[in-house]
User: Which sequence fits this backbone?
C-alpha cells in the first residue's frame, strides 16, 4: 500500500514519488492545511482545481470537535470529508507549543484546557495514536514536544529527550498497517541536540521523518542552519517533512536541502487577509492602486481566479467583507504554491533546480524591493 522512491536528484534537491492507499503524491509537495478537516474557504472541487493531492488535518482540533469517535464512525477522514486523496495528521504535539497558557506537561503526556470551552483533555503518545487511528489518515505523526524559540538550552534538551521517549511509545502504540508513522526530530537551534534527536528517532525505524520545532520564532538563518545539518542525517530512502515552514522562498530553500514535504497556513491565512502570492511577488489587494485595475492577480497564472476575476473586483469583495473574496484569493494562493512545486519538481528532473531556484528568488526579491510602501505585507 505504501512506497517512496527518489526518482531524481539535482544537487541535494529530490524529486520523488510517495504512494499511499489513497493515491500517489509527487514530491516535493505542499500540503494545504485543513485544520478541522477542511481547507478554509475551499470546497473539494476547488481544491482539485488547484491540483492539491494531499491535505493536512489537525489531531487536537478534530479530537475536540466533532470528536475522533464521530469521525471514525463516519468512515474516518476520507468518509467524513469526502476527500479521496491522502491525508496527513499531526500528532497534537504542536499544541504543546501553541496553547502554552492552557496546558501542563509531564512525563506521561500533556493536559490541556480546551480553547473552545475550557474543558479538560489529555494527550499522551498512546492517546495521540488512538485519535490518529480513528481519524484514519494515511500518514500520522509520533507525539512530540515542541519548545518555543525563547526556551533555554536546558529546556530544549529536556523537550528533545522527552520527544525521543514519546517516539518509542508512539511506535509501540501504532497498530494500523494502512498508516505510515513518521518520527519527529526536535532540538531547537542547537545542532548537537538536533543530531542526538535525529540519531535516536531514526534508530526506531519510522517510515519517514519530520523536522519539527522550527518557524516558532527563531531567526531565519538559524532555521536553515538546522535544516542543512539535520536533513543529511535522515535516511535518503525515506520521505523528509519540514513542519510548518512555508513562504515560497522558504520552500525553495527547503527543497535545496533535501526536504520532500511541506505544510503551512500562509497561503490560506494570507488570502483571507488580502495578500496574494504571485510570480511577481506579494500583492496586497487592499492597496488603493488596485481600485480600477482590470488585470488578473497574476497574468502568468491559469487558475480559476486569474481567469475570471480582476484585481479591482477582488479588492471590492475583500473591502466589502464578502466571503467570495476569501474563496477566490485562497484558490489562487494555493494554485500558486502548487504550481510552483510542480515547476520545482520538473526542474529537479531536468537537473537544473539551482538555476531555477536562483531565478525565482531574484524575481521575488526584485518585486518586493520595487513595491510601494505599505503595498506588501511583511514576511512572517
Assistant:
Amino acid at each position: 500500500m505504501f512506497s517512496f522512491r527518489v526518482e531524481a536528484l539535482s544537487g541535494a534537491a529530490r524529486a520523488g514519488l510517495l504512494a499511499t492507499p489513497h493515491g500517489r503524491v509527487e514530491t516535493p509537495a505542499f500540503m494545504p492545511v485543513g485544520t478541522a478537516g477542511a481547507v478554509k474557504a475551499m470546497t473539494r472541487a476547488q481544491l482539485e482545481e488547484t491540483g492539491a493531492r494531499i491535505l493536512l488535518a489537525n489531531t487536537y482540533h478534530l479530537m475536540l470537535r466533532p470528536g475522533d469517535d464521530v469521525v471514525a464512525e463516519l468512515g474516518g477522514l476520507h468518509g467524513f470529508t469526502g476527500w479521496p486523496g491522502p491525508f496527513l495528521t499531526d500528532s497534537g504535539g504542536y499544541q504543546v507549543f501553541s496553547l502554552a497558557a492552557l496546558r501542563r506537561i509531564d512525563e506521561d503526556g500533556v493536559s490541556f484546557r480546551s480553547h473552545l470551552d475550557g474543558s479538560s483533555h489529555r494527550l499522551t503518545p498512546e492517546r495521540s495514536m488512538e485519535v490518529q487511528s480513528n481519524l484514519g489518515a494515511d500518514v500520522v505523526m509520533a507525539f512530540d514536544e515542541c519548545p518555543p524559540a525563547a526556551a533555554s538550552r536546558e529546556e530544549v534538551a529536556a523537550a528533545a529527550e522527552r520527544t525521543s521517549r514519546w517516539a518509542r511509545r508512539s511506535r509501540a502504540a501504532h497498530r494500523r498497517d494502512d498508516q505510515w508513522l513518521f518520527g519527529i526530530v526536535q532540538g531547537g537551534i542547537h545542532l548537537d541536540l538536533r543530531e542526538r534527536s535525529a540519531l535516536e528517532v531514526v534508530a526506531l525505524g519510522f517510515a519517514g521523518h519530520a523536522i519539527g520545532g522550527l518557524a516558532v520564532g527563531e531567526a531565519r538563518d538559524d532555521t536553515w542552519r538546522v535544516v542543512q545539518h539535520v536533513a543529511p542525517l535522515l535516511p535518503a530512502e525515506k520521505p523528509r517533512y519540514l513542519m510548518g515552514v512555508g513562504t515560497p522562498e522558504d520552500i525553495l530553500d527547503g527543497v535545496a536541502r533535501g526536504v520532500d514535504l511541506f505544510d503551512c497556513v500562509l497561503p490560506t491565512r494570507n488570502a483571507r487577509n488580502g495578500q496574494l502570492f504571485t510570480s511577481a511577488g506579494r500583492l496586497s489587494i487592499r492597496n488603493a492602486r488596485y481600485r480600477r485595475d482590470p488585470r488578473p492577480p497574476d497574468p502568468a497564472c491559469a487558475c480559476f481566479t486569474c481567469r475570471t476575476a480582476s484585481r479591482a473586483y477582488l479588492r471590492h469583495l475583500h473591502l466589502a467583507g464578502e466571503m467570495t473574496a476569501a474563496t477566490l484569493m485562497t484558490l489562487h494562493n494555493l494554485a500558486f504554491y502548487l504550481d510552483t512545486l510542480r515547476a520545482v519538481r520538473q526542474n529537479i528532473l531536468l537537473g537544473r533546480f539551482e538555476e531555477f531556484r536562483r531565478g525565482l528568488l531574484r524575481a521575488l526579491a526584485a518585486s518586493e524591493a520595487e513595491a510601494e510602501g505599505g503595498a506588501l505585507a511583511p514576511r512572517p
Remarks:
- The CA atoms of residues 60 and 95 lie 7 Å apart.
